[in-house]
Amino acid sequence: MYQILIPVLTFAAVVAFGGAVLVVVRSVRSSALRKRLEGAEGSGGGPPAAPRQPAVVRTLARIGDAVCSKELLERLRTRLAEAGYTSEGAAAALFGVKLTLLGTGLISFGILLLPTPLPFPVRVFGAIGGAALLFLAPNAAVAIHRRKRGKEVRRHLPDVIDLLEVCVSAGMGMEMAWNVVMEEVRSVSPVLAGEMALANLEIHLGATRAAAMRHMAERTDADEMRSLAAVLAQADRFGTSISDALRVYASSMREQRSEEAYEAAEKMAVKLIFPMVLLIFPQVLIVSVGPAFLRLLRLFSET
């Protein structure tokens, strides 16, 4: 019986984990919010109705709201916003998924370890450890997506600043230049274009440019964006030229990128030591010294 039950439970646990991750990713992905914002900007009527979420997501969100505290939900919401998940119920749904995986892991690993000849404490700790891994798996997925998203933003941000400086120097206003650069960068970096669209919407809703830029920096978790927000805020406060401020900041960004390239090149020599010592040097030693060593063995064996 256990020979049939163990594969079935393993398959059920894998399917449950994969299905939960897919449901959360497809339901709270920020592309849906971007489509709603683009529809609101393109239409002259009122704001579009929010799409109805699937029943599974609503159930998970209810579980998360019932169990999780408001402070923890706020921290999860901030972390998810940095990863690009800006839906209102994303944090509660994530915590509901974590609780579902925890319960599934306890039951599945408990049944899997039950027929084993291991001591009872080992089986208990094994079930708890497996359930804890499943409980922390969504956090790891969110952290990976957050790092990937921040890396993409930091990679394309210097080009965006250069384009902004060119547009403002050509006579465009900051708002018009922002919209033009947002459309130009959309094909290269949809993530950065989406964040620029959200910042533009905040400005249209009454927020200041500095506040919208600070919120954009919080969502992307990029230090360069915080610096850009500070530069634009100082330019607005003291009445200085925005084009000059962008030109100076773009020059500093190019210098910073060059310094990072030089630093990476200097680190490359140190990083190459380990593969050379572990992978290349033993083969070279075998090829060069191996024949002589075999000949010496043959001479010693003949004598």
Task: Give a short summary of the structure.
The protein is an all-alpha fold. Helices cover 84% and strands 0% of the residues. The protein has 2 domains: 2-150, no CATH class; 153-269, Receptor-associated Protein.
Please supply descriptive tags for the structure shown above.
303 residues, mainly alpha, Receptor-associated Protein, 2 domains, 0% strand
Structure commentary:
Helix content is 84%, strand content 0%. The chain has helices at residues 2-28, 30-42, 55-67, 70-82, 90-113, 120-169, 174-185, 190-204, 209-220, 223-238, 242-271, 273-302. The protein folds into two domains: 2-150, no CATH class; 153-269, Up-down Bundle (Receptor-associated Protein). It has 303 residues and is mostly helical. The protein is built from twelve helices and no strands. It starts with a helix and ends with a helix. The model is unreliable at 40-50 (pLDDT under 50).
